[in-house]
Input
Amino acid sequence: MTQNITMPQLGESVTEGTIERWLVKPGDTVKKYDPLAEVTTDKVQAEIPSSFSGVIQELVAKEGETLPVGAVVCSIQVDGDTELPPAPTPKQSNVSDAILNAGVHKPVSKKQEPSPARELREPKAKARYSPAVLKLAAEHDIDLTLVTGTGMEGRITRKDIQELIAQGGTTQQTAPETPKQTPAPVASMQEPAGQPEAKPEMSAPTQAGDIEIPVTSVRRAIANNMVKSMHDIPHAWMMIEVDVTDLVAYRDSIKEDFKQKEGFNLTYFPFFVNAVARALKEFPMINSTWQGDKIIQKKDINLSIAVAAEDKLFVPVLKHADEKSIKGIAREMKELSDLARAGKLRTEHMSGGTFTINNTGSFGSIQSKGIINHPQAAILQVESIVKKPVIFGGNMFAARDMVNLCLSLDHRILDGLICGKFLNRVKEILENSNNETLSVY
Output
């Protein structure tokens, strides 16, 4: 009896994954829970475990290939006629029960005896396309029957459609096409109207001394997610300036004592996270997501925190941030950052985020426009705290610690009125943070 293993959903809003490396080959005997492949998405790196004991029959997906959630990645020849029940997460795997269950398909009837790969690849009267391919094709008026796919046995991938769009593709074109003899610099300058997507790197000329850096699967997944966010979400942007002189003085006065007691540094960022969490409770519409025919206002305040590790960007989630003290926020942020840099983040660390806050000030930035973490409604950039001459108390000048807070918002859900009120509330909380009104514990 043949059982199929499919691409699991490795987090909310994740629609596809990339086979980074196969850990088995056809003919290998595997046990239930054994890891089959390493998979990468824009949110997490994980392993696909086997849901059955048996012999690997065929590896349908290739290393480096990106497949939609639910696509068959391999098949296993299993002894017996009964489908094995889902099992708890194995110790050697970092994936959750949900990932295990997602990889199980019903057995193939012995009377039919088709190979999983043959079933996937044989031409059919009506071709099957992934949801991502259908969505892109519909949005850009592309006739899929005229498109030549570059996937396995001619399957049309999302990358095929994206490249066709980047070339100004219409229903009269097929992809891939033979490159036309036009100057490369001119071709690279031509962009389809309203399309935020980066152009294919093949169109850029290279010269002696240039260095070509292969795009890793992680960087490709991040790029795809950014393109999706910019394509699907109508971004708007706001900024507010905040005087955090008292907050800076308070933090500086306790930082040495805090480090001695807690064993790690207290940065400014947890104060901002605390202020945002408090403000989100008062303005819950900011803590929402767009769902086509409805808007879902999230009950929990789970803050996604961007963490950079080498060339990778991870966004672990601080759950129930509104229920935590500043010390609790600081400790959990440190733990999540350590896990990210050690490559030990699991799916549960990355899922459930309802709003993103980004510490761009740690790089010296003073103003930036963030790309919203799909499908959330907004992202806040906390910029560098800088000394500036400010008029206050009438006609007096003084050097004050000032910071810009930059908010990108989904204009389908939010508008300037509610976002302006939200930012002003965050400003009010921060400007009134001092040794009399605030405690980190």
